[in-house]
Amino acid sequence: MQKNNITTGENFDSLITVLMNYDIHKDVLSETPHRRFLDLALVPVYLNGISDEKGIRLLTEKEDSHSSGNDEFLFKLGDQNYKRMMGLKVFSLNDFVKSTNNSLFEEDGPDILFEKELDDIYIITNKYFLFGARIMYDKDFMFKVGEFLKGDFYIIPSSVNEILVFSTKFAESIDYLKCIIKEVNESCLESTDLILSDNLYRYYCDKHEICIE
Length: 213
Prior knowledge:
The protein is α+β, with helices and mostly antiparallel strands and 213 residues long. It folds into two domains: 12-85, no CATH class; 89-212, no CATH class. The protein is built from six helices and ten strands.
């Protein structure tokens, strides 16, 4: 991901926060405000337009100074703008497959994630399918997902644009799931910028937190 300079007159209305893989982007992250989260980074960025994941610009430390050096301001505003601009979209994987005629069973594609009803697996993103994985950082929403699924759940980092969630009671072996995640990242995503993580996450309802499995 390229770091682009922005002008001091940049409109803060276009500032949002997104999640990205820390190791993949650590070089540019060393020069821009960010917060570590698991193996990821929460980053305030300027959204150029609702088009694709390349339509963002990172802040530099110098540009951060124009917010009076207050990173808390950047993250708070970015969080608010994300919710206001991007919204939220949740639906079953089965509905997605039906609506897009998308096949998960192509001979040259990865295996199905697990042999369960697709209605038990949910896609969480936003109305633009752009940086939808950001919802993982929302503790209140993750708590509500746990209530809906009636217990702990796994999080598949499908890409920076969306995540998949499903109850732990429906899961295959953890090693199998990790292999599938890595296979998808290596063979199905168009660029490394789209990769969120090679790790499998689990939300623990009793601790109200996400951990790497």
